[in-house]
Amino acid sequence: MTSFQKDVHEGLSRSPKHLSSKYFYDEIGDELFVQIMNMPEYYLFNAEFEIFQRQQEQMIKALELEKDNYFELLELGAGDGTKTKELLKALDQGGFDFDYLPIDISHNALEKLELTLKEEMPNVSVKTKQGDYFEVLASLKDTHHPKVVLFLGSNIGNLLDYQAHDFIYQLGSSLSLNDKLFLGVDLIKSVDVVLPAYNDAAGITAAFNLNLLDRINKELEGDFDKSKFVHKPEYIEEEGIAKSYLMSTEKQTVKVMGKSYAFQKGEKIHTEISRKYSDNIIAEILNDTDFTLLQKLTDTQSLFADYILKRG
User: Fold this and answer.
1) Contact 219/257 with Cβ under 8 angstroms?
2) What percent of the chain clears pLDDT 70, i.e. is strictly above it?
3) Which of 273, 198, 263, 265 is nearest to 224 (CA)?
4) Domain 36-190+278-311 CATH class label
5) CA 248, 254, 256, 261 torsion: positive or negative?
6) What is the DSSP letter of 188?
7) Which pTM value belongs to this model?
């Protein structure tokens, strides 16, 4: 039994039902997510992109990078690398000695990123790494080269706070003294700003969420009928967590790999959370980890923040 099959079975057997957001990213999911990042409602991308466009010098200074000291620049969940390319250009033009190591579970995304970087920045050394973040980091630990780890796009927001703490704690154990973590997070704000980012007028986010059912049908012999499910996002500002669901519009039974799963009308499958942060929440998550805060960078509207952390 594959991990995908195991996780789908366990998630659909639960009450309430749940499917992991990590399975959004097949070839179609990758393309839809790129479209999401370009949506007018999806402020997260534009806000962090602005930081990368305008504050490269501050980044390089805060990361304590020096031209004569080789380092590895690793990116967890690199995707198409649009934001990171702004930093790569600055490092390349500045004559810094480094390798860029994008890490992603999607072979398709890495292949596309490597091709575009060869065209746009042929002098930048790119070494793609496909697989689980921690397995890749563990394989690199013995190199003893200084490392900067990028974890952008508020991807950490897909974790509950205790999970985020455990993730950063484990990340610290995979790094060496003085290595850096560049952590991008979405900041808490009002529902009228947040909710449209997860429920755009063009329906791209809905297609992204529903594509998970298509993937189950294709890869796990499922018989989900997408027309009987709707995308259902929720956000409560006081809680600070956006949640995405797929809701059954009628009473039905779905089969996956020969197993049957019953749905009531209105029953929801929880597919994703997107945590929003404040300085206090970040401080709580970092408590008892190996990281200390060096600097915080924000966009001009203070919608998004990049925290630069140092492993102590």
Assistant:
1) no
2) 100
3) 263
4) alpha beta
5) positive
6) P
7) 0.89
